[in-house]
What we know:
Distance between the termini: 29 Å
Order of helices and strands: EEEEHEE
Largest sheet: 5 strands, mixed, barrel
Helix content: under 10%
Amino acid sequence: xxxxxxxxxxxxxxxxxxxxxxxxxxxxxxxxxxxxxxxxxxxxxxxxxxxxxxxxxxxxxxxxxxxxxxxxxxxxxxxxxxxxxxxxxxxxxxxxx
Length: 97
C-alpha cells in the first residue's frame, strides 16, 4: 500500500499548468513539523516535501488555499522521472483550523 497522509503547511505554489494530456497541474511545497516518539524517546521532526496535484477537482481546492495555511494532505509517493528522489502526489486535501 502506498498511501501518505500528512498534516502540513502550504509554503509554495507554482503557477497552474497543464500536462500533455490537458489536465491541470500544480507544483507545491509543503512544510511539516511535529514531535513523535521513536524507540521510547521524543523526536522533533521537521521537513519540506515537494508535491504535485493533478486534476481539476484537487487543483481547484489548492488554488484557493492561502499560502501559510495548514491542511491534511492525502496521496501517494512516486519517484521523479530521473529516478532521483520522490514527490508526494496529492489526491485529497482538508483545511485545518
